[in-house]
Amino acid sequence: QVQLVESGGGLVQPGGSLRLSCVASGSIFSIYAMSWYRQAPGKQRELVAALNSGGGTNYADFVKGRFTIATDNAKNTGYLQMNSLKPEDTAVYYCVVAVRTGSAIQFNNWGQGIQVTVSS
């Protein structure tokens, strides 16, 4: 079983920065791939950024140049560095992680979600 704990959210002023963390624990060897999604009130959940098993990254147009996704497998932790935040970035952010467990890969593990509010 995989547990994911997110942290780093909160209230920040426009133009500020936050770094979200997603710590994976349980019977895992390493993070295989990860994504970050977000959902604002009254809106559909949307993909923000993704990191594949080969290290390639993909960003939604609305965060390109501002957000960076990364992992630290020594800590089984994924990150989303968010810079130049805008009020429209306000949402609940979710990490989604695929992990190596023994000889298998377990996909589609979701974090609990964490609130990010950008407001003056």
Quick overview of this protein structure:
The chain has no helices and eleven strands. The protein is an all-beta fold and 120 residues long.
Characterise the protein shown here.
With 120 residues, the protein is mainly beta. The protein has no helices and eleven strands.
What is the total tally of β strands? 11
Helix proportion range: under 10%
Gyration radius, in Å: 14 Å
In the predicted model, the low-confidence regions spanning at least 5 consecutive residues are none
Structural class: mainly beta
Helix-strand sequence:
EEEEEEEEEEE
| Main sheet attributes: strand count, strand direction, barrel closure | 7 strands, mixed
Overall geometry: elongated
Instruction: Tell me, rounded to a whole number, the average pLDDT.
Output: 96
Determine the number of helices (DSSP H or I, runs of at least 4 residues): 0
Strand content: over 45%
Distance between the termini: 40 Å
Main attributes?
mainly beta, 120 residues, 0% helix, seven-stranded mixed sheet, 11 strands, four-stranded antiparallel sheet
Per-chain topology:
Blueprint: E1 2-7, E2 10-12, E3 18-26, E4 30-39, E5 46-51, E6 57-59, E7 67-72, E8 77-82, E9 91-101, E10 104-110, E11 114-118
Parallel strand pairs: 2-11
Antiparallel strand pairs: 1-3, 3-8, 4-5, 4-9, 5-6, 7-8, 9-10, 9-11
